[in-house]
Amino acid sequence: MSPTAAPSGASTPLIVPELVRLDALPGDDKKAVIDYLAQVIASAGRADTAEGLAGDAIAREETASTGIPGGVAIPHCRSPHVLAPSLGFARLAQPVDFGAADGGLADLVFMIAAPSGADDVHLKLLAKLARGLMKSEFTDTLRAATTPEDIARIVTEQVQPDTTGGGPSESASATAGPASGRTTPEPSEGGKVIVGVSSCPTGIAHTFMAAEALERAGRERGVTVRVEGQGSGRIDWLDPDLIERADAVVFAHDLPVKNRDRFAGKPVIDVGVKAAVNDAGSLVDRALAAASDPKAPKVPAGGGDETEAGAEEVHWARRIQRSVMTGVSYMIPFVAAGGLLIALGFLFGGYDITDTAKNIVVGNSDPDKNILATSLWNLPDLSNANYAADHALFGSPLAAYVGAVLFLLGRTGMDLLVPALAGYISFGLAGRPGIAPGFIMGMVAVATNSGFIGGLIGGILSGFLAAWLAGLSAPRWLRSLMPVVIIPLLTTLVTGSIMYMLLGKPLAALMSWLTNSLNSMATNGSGLFLGIIVGLMMCFDLGGPVNKAAYLFATAGLDQATNASYEVMAAVMAAGMVPPLALALATTIRPKLFTDVERDNGRAAWLLGASFISEGAIPFAAADPLRIIPPCMVGGAVTGAMSMALHAGSKAPHGGIFVFFAMDNFLWFVVSILVGMVVACAGVVGLKRMAVSRTPASEAVAAA
Asked: Which of 276, 347, 571, 581 has CA 20 to 30 A from 186's CA?
């Protein structure tokens, strides 16, 4: 049947018998089960396309498995293809592995399908289902049910007990915990109190399952546990008085904790959300132990919304990895804005605008040189060597002036690359108190010529020191000064001294050796090998740390203004363009191998790839990394090698084919990209077709 739009609103039941399948045999892996339930939801008129819903759910599944102990799985997503919030349910005759922590197979599978704009009422109902799945009596009833009507009734009683009102009553909502659907009595005087926050990327299922698991573990131990689910929709904030009384805090989260400052000074256990779902009891025990341990890590003051400070429960290597990715993500806009402005400066002012841009725009304060700034009303005399721009567009003084302004703007943005990297790495480790010391360490790295390596080291050192200082127990009168005065001052003093006195020169020597070695490869006959290396790096993680390491190396080399540095930049840019272009081509020539969402992403990937935005391939890689990333790496290596061998060069750090005016041997640059694109596309299509041919039986069952 063709899907029709289901009615929306609070009165729409989340589950009806048409969304239930008992003793189903959709296939032997979780992808087959998700495809099957997506078809069930679409056939009931709750989604406009089964393929689109399945694609979004599988993409969510790739980020973290949705199997939970007890034989339950909850694949879920928010999708534009969902017409009304729905629960598809399958009780499987043959259990399937959904990656539960206990290693068990799932025989009860709920697909939670929420529209992109689901309202608070429906999100609360979905949250109550998530809490119910943590109760063995609820899942036992589901296994004992004999008809789809029984399943629909049992689930509805869990999530919508007041069906006459179309949803939970206002009075219940007012006294309930975070989307819990039940009242939460005040803790008794003198008893231990633990508060917490839970969150997951989607904000629908694991957020509230973790909250329920922690609160149940507390009841089993005679301890009051209240957990704030920071999920999608409205948040039921914890009572400030309860937080004040709390002996310890548990953060079970995959997203930054909102308003973390509320918990400052409390002993903290900081873990991922699935740790609470899988073993909440041990977390409560650890929180009780931390409450009695004066040396236990505490939530720092000044942490704001996004700090990772105080998360000593997370391995230090994982904290560094998170903080580096934070730094890279905040750095990208500086690179994009600065690089494109420099490229536009080259377009208007010519390649030699680098030599005279400052003279043209701001002049020279040296009285012996007496170089005066020009303006729109006093354009530069290009015959004057101080203002020369021999390659300005059309030989125009106006073009030279505009090009000089654009170049200086871009150069300023690029000069902030290392400080931004260091500043936001430090922010990722320590929150707001780490920003100022991190930025200063980035400037120190620039001053000592240690480049992005110095920025990385300086940001990490300042972040860890600021986080340690923030975790100290300060007197109440001093707490307000800690994040804005004491921590930035001491952190800058200590880490700055270390950078200048001990690490600056060795890191500068390392950076110089690395740059010279790689440039030597480009000029001494090893350019082909260098192209392969940077091509593989650019396509390995599509905008991640390995990709950014190759990109930072290339952009740092542009300051040398050598043919070798331009060729490395061209190879990096060309290889980074391959993944999105290859996937755009693959979705065009073999559309049936991709979901509707992927085909839409493929159309957008043409422009993203042409603009050198490697992240255009991330939606594909997230959904199917083993069939996407290896072919893209092969294609990127081919492109990088060809670009170096054919001596394509780029004086612009970004922009793709749109900065053709700043390139040498532009034709060979394009040829290199096209060859790598075809190679990567052929690999993706081949692997996709192999996957389809191996699962015809599963697809036939899902379509039945």
From this structure: 276
